[in-house]
Structure prediction request, 399 residues.
Amino acid sequence: MDFSFPTEIVKEGQVSIVVPRLAAYVKEAGEYGPSKAPVFYNPAMKLNRDMAVLAMRAYQKKLGREISVCEPLTGCGIRGIRFAAEGEVVGRVFVNDINPEATKLAKFNFDRNKMAGNVLVSNEDANLFLSRYAAPLKRFDYVDIDPFGSPVPYLDAALRALRNGGLLALTATDMAPLCGVHPSACVRKYGGKPLRTEYCHELAVRLLVGCLTMMAAKHEIGVEILLSHSTDHYIRVYAVVHYGARLADKSVRMMGYVVHCFSCFHRETSEGIISPLRRDCPECGAKLDVAGPLWLDRIANEDFCFLTKREVDQRRSEQERRILKLISLIQDEAESPATYYVVDKICDKLNLSVPPLTKVVDGVRRAGFQATLTHFNSRGVKTTAPASIVKEIITKLST
Ligand SMILES: C[S@@+](CC[C@H](N)C(=O)[O-])C[C@H]1O[C@@H](n2cnc3c(N)ncnc32)[C@H](O)[C@@H]1O
Ligand SMILES: [Zn+2]
Prediction:
């Protein structure tokens, strides 16, 4: 097939596809090829797609029947094609993109991988496309929203197009608003205030889930988070939706605030959207800052992490080792409280030399508190211990 732009063949997972030749679009060093190319393909998001295939497979096995899959912003089709080729019991895959060049290429790529019979490719606005499936018996089991920037403009239509018990996967790449660099953009998009703390990536996940929760509640739908991760410059959430006003109420009760002291590292959570918030730090008296409303409940499920890990090919390539490590960390921290401490940040503020992370974790555990590492930050510790104890242990270890 002839394309009006330079192309190349890439292999990813079990498929091989034609994509725009990204090198042709990078005119100067540091330029971002994927956004200049006529059809979107970003090789750097491979881990995102690998995780999506694993989570989708784990979810399908949990359901124990064939599932329908939808990717309304597909670009060159790579994610949808991988779902069709690597999902063992995937029925129809529905992909869509607003860019006609993208859907032309996606069709070609499905054909190329002998998957044309399994797919329906559409070329329209994602919300319009999703709305066509927002009726009983038409809805999907799995919807994957992987947009430019924020997934929020597609949440309402995606929720309506998901069946009861369906799985919604969301990518957000707009980390500047979510991490508090542009707080007003975050309030506007996500309905919650971010905070530029050392644990802002976790807050970003909680803000996105909070936004989803409030949007789902409007449709009398509750949410349950099976998996979430923060990797490179994006966050990703996998949420199951449960129909019912009571379940929606239950989810809304998981909303609240994180209150933070920039002076002494104290932080606490405050449950409920209309809860009165503490203004002054109980530890040092400084003014407290606040993030939210956001989701305070679990952002991963240990059992689902186990199921997802089981789907990893044990051939142990470098990527597979990275994925196993990532899911193991998420599994270990699944039951931990919100927020984490970054040892280097505390040492920096207290002018201390940095002790080994494992010693800090051991020290906190010996003091009688739970402590785990976190995938959010390679120097972070999630713990039930208050900031005063964490600082005391770090100080002892540094002297
Ligand atoms: C980040 S890319 C998708 C990448 C793809 N999901 C993957 O895994 O490689 C976002 C895509 O959304 C498409 N898009 C943007 N606005 C859209 C809209 N309103 N409706 C449908 N597609 C849209 C773009 O053309 C682009 O291909
Ligand atoms: Zn304080």
In short: The longest strand covers residues 162-172.
